[in-house]
Each structure stands twice: as structure tokens, then as C-alpha cells.
What does this fold into?
Amino acid sequence: MRGWVRLLLPSQTQSLFLPIEADLREVEKRIERSTEVEPLLLQEALRHVMLAPGKRIRPALTIASGRMFREGGASLHAMAAAVEFLHTATLVHDDVVDQPELRRGAAALYTMVGNSVALLAGDYLFAQAAATASETNNLRIMRLFAESVMTLCAGQIAESARGQDWCGADRERYYSTIDAKTAALFVLSCKAGGILGEASFAQTAALIRYGRQLGLAFQIVDDILDLVGDEAVMGKPAGSDLRQGVITLPVIYLREELSDDVMREAFSGGEGREQAIQMITERARTSGAVDRAYQEARELAAEAAQCLDELPAGEYRDLLMGLTRTVIDRDA
Amino acid sequence: MRGWVRLLLPSQTQSLFLPIEADLREVEKRIERSTEVEPLLLQEALRHVMLAPGKRIRPALTIASGRMFREGGASLHAMAAAVEFLHTATLVHDDVVDQPELRRGAAALYTMVGNSVALLAGDYLFAQAAATASETNNLRIMRLFAESVMTLCAGQIAESARGQDWCGADRERYYSTIDAKTAALFVLSCKAGGILGEASFAQTAALIRYGRQLGLAFQIVDDILDLVGDEAVMGKPAGSDLRQGVITLPVIYLREELSDDVMREAFSGGEGREQAIQMITERARTSGAVDRAYQEARELAAEAAQCLDELPAGEYRDLLMGLTRTVIDRDA
It folds into this structure.
């Protein structure tokens, strides 16, 4: 059985997740069972997106946050599966919106089944997430779940509303975007674990803050890797965000070193666009902008680590502590 | 206040809904409050789709089904709003998939805000529906809610999987499609009302069957109107379903009278397509196919009416009885 779990976990997180390996296996079983549905087209779509190798960071957050306080059980496994369904639903819809060809190194779902079926499969996954969360028999969690999705969507619409306005993009706006887009789901994952573990108010507050800072750090590193990561390891070409008109923290810092002409070109629909994007990604490799962004991610991860002081010591807290390092030191 | 509600209800349903007018007003207030969100783009999108004149049949089903057994209250109003949010979410995503220009006589949302924001606004509405349903504090309802959405999406993916296979389309397949697409939400609306009203098992079963038969009848009439309805009243051109490659019950019957060539042409991407579609819609006006489909809808509505025998007599049951007539005798 171990070998099978190993397949799903990149090596870095593998040893870190050892204390919750049995729980994660239960989560995987749930996820696999959920794909056994009709029609076949839906089944194939679900298998493609749910059974692809993934980090499973969000389920791990839920499990560790819950087990810190109580034995694991069906409710905790259900909630851990629910956050992964929800995360995958957002990826499927993101890809319908942004139209990248690859996702986690494999074909994006819409390229295989078309935009319409991908949209419906995403809807199905949202509902699957809600149905699985309802297995916790916990109304507070159901409400938290629905409200997190609302935050997430409102955040993405706010990002859309801003459009490709590269002049107006600043640090504050960037943080507000990734707070809604990424950190909200990390918070949900941790907080739901705490609720199911019947953590105290102060402990739940610490978990929420931990999840938020970790989520922000995670997204900043994601954005750095998109710009300067190894394409072979990432499974997608460098500069994908730029191509989609998304301005990330390292680019905000890079902008201080680059001419407005290059930036304007990179966010235009003009012929020089690809060249400008390549110029930016090359410059990023030698500029201090990436280091500055990394430094911020490290500070956020350190803040996340500090929150753990208020939580019970032990292997589950160690796991959460380990995550504050691996979200920074990773190459994909 | 009355005048304001009147604006939202087509005249036919207006008098029918009199016994639940105060409840529907509470539902409208909830719906209106839910649009007061940021960012502005989301607010505008929500106002466009949620505050447009609509029949509000699904909320009325929930209210009447619940009030038949108990006083109305915040939970019933929340659930009634939730089914309308859910219904609207599916319409918004349907329009992203099918790309019609009009919806209820107004511009389809995606034509105003683009496919991406429309997709995200639909996601937001799904979450809003779940959040509002959670206000019932009833886990059974939450689960029912999520499972209904899964049924709905799986049904639509099944329809997509079949594609524009006009040869293979038959009655059985049509029913299976509209069962998932339309009847599932009518069933949810009625069943949730029954659960909140603490109806007995037999009464809830009667409500479920009523909702299902009514939903099927409703969809058949919708499909007939799409084919032969008055374009001005409908707010969209006749034959929209054909243009989207959807084969409905009247067309299945019409096919027996038409040559394969015309059908093939209507479902092709060829130049003669529009002409073939017009030929079909013209033929539909004089053929017996539409009558046959109407007859089936009438039988389903009569079956729905029969289910009401098992429910407590009174103004709420009368309302449900009235709906079995108005779903048939309507022009839009």
C-alpha cells in the first residue's frame, strides 16, 4: 500500500506526511470511490483531474489540524476529501477561463472534453465537495465551506475586474487577490480540521492565522516558480501568468527595473508580446526582484510557524511546521 | 409593496401565488440583500440575473410544500431563496455553454461580462445557494441540496456526451435528460419544503412525486414553446433548441413526418441549416407532433395533481394544484 501512496506524493512531502499516511490513504479511497459514476464521460473527466499526482497539501492540513486534538475518523477524512474536491473544482474552472494547455504537467481537462463539459465537471466537483463536507454532519463546517467558496469567487471576479491593468497593479492589490484565491482555501482546510477536533477558540484562531500566512507564502512561491522555475519540473512553460495577463509579486518588483515599454508590450496583444515576456523572464533570473519576493514568502512562512506555538506539541504540529519549510523550498 | 411583487410575477402566476405573497416578499428581500456585495462587477452581475422578472416557481413550490404542514419562517424563506439561487446558477452556466444571446428576453449575462466572469458568477451563485440552504440548520437538506446539484450536472454531461446525435435521440433518452436537468430541481424544491414542514414519510414521497411529474410537464411545455411559441412573448427566437443541437420531445415526434435529409441538415453545420430549422418550426405549427407532446405534458400534470390527494387540503394544496394547470396553459 505504501508504494501506492508514494505514487501520489512528490518526494518532498512524502516523508513529511508519514504521520498521517493511513489517513491520507482513507482520503484517497474516498476520492477514488467518488469517480465511480455515470456517465462514462464524467467518470473519465473525474479520474483525469482527481487521480493525477498531486501534493494533497490541503487534505494534509485538515488531517493534521484535526488529529492534533482528537483521533481521526470518517468526518475528518470526509472533510479532507472535500477540500481537495473543492480545490480541483477551482482548477478545472480556472483552466476553462485561462485556457492553459497543461495542468500539473498533464493536459488541462477542457482540452480533452471541451469547455462545456469541463465547466459542468467543475460544477459537479463543487457539488461533490459540498456533499462530502456534509458527511461531517457539522453545520458550522457546511456554512464555512459555502462562505469560503463565495470569498474565492468574489476574489477571482475582483481580479478579472482589474483586468490587465499592469500600471495599477501593486503589492496591496496582489495580496488581496491571493488572499481570496489561495489563502481562503488553506484557511478552510485548517479551520475545518480544528472545528472537527473541537479545538478551543484561541487554538482555532491560531490555525486560521497559520493557514492564511502559509497560503500566502505558498502562492508567492507558486508565482515565483511560474516566472523562473524549471519548465521540465513545473510541467508548463515559464511565464504562463504573464501570458494570461496576471501580474504577480516578483513582476511587481521587476517593474521597478524595467522600462514601461517592455511592460506595456508584455501586456499588449501585439506582435512583440512573446519577446517582451521572454525578456522579463530572463531578467527575472538575474534580478533581485525574485529574491525580494522569496524573502516575503519566507517571512510569511515564519509567521505561520510562530502561530504553531499556541498549538499542542507533537508529530502533527511538527508536520505543520515542516510545511512552512517545504512551501518555500520546492521546485514545483 | 404589492405593486413591487407584481413586477416580478407574470400575471398568470400572480393570483395563484396570493396565499404565499408575504412569504415570497421575504424571499425577494433575501435575494435582493444577497446582491449587495463587492466587487461592483459581481454586484452588477448578480443584480442582472437575480432581479430580472422571473416566475419564481421553484421558491413557490418550497413555500407551499412547507406551509402545508407548518407556519412559514426564516428557514423556509432561506430554502426558497436557495433553490432560486441554484436555478439561476444553472441558467448562467447553461448560457456560457450554449451561448444564446437572450435569456428571459434580456441579454444573457456572458454577453455583458464575458464568459470568464459569467462562469465565476455562476460559481458564486452555487455557493450562495449552499450558504443560504445552510441557514435552515438542517443537515438532511444540505445533503439533499448537494446531491441534487450532482444529479443535475451528471445529467447535463450525459446530454453533452450524446452530442448532436439526432438519429439516436428517442423518448426514453429525452425523459432521462429532462429528469436530471429540470425535474431534479423541482423535486428538491418540494422535498425541502416537506422536510422543513416535518411532513410524514408518505407525504414527503407524495411531494417528491408531485415535483417530478410537474417538472417533466414543465420542461416539455418549455420545449414546445421554444419550437412554436410567440417570439415576442418568449423573448427569444423560435427554434433556439434546434440551433443548439438539442432534440426535444416535439421534434422527436416531428421526425416521423420529416425526411432524414431535413433533419441531417438541421443538425449539420452546413449552409442549409437555418433553412432546415425554419422548415421544421413551420411544420411544427401544423403537425400533430406538438399536440402529442402537449398531451404527454397534460398527462404528467394530471399525475402530479393526483399526488396531491395524499396531502392536507387547503390553500397551499390548491396552489400546487393550480400550478399543474399553469405549467401547461402558458405562453412563455
Notes: The CA atoms of residues 214 and 301 of chain B lie 6 Å apart. Residues 2-326 of chain B form a domain with the Farnesyl Diphosphate Synthase fold (CATH 1.10.600.10). DSSP finds 17 helices and two strands in chain B. The two ends of chain B are 25 Å apart (CA to CA).
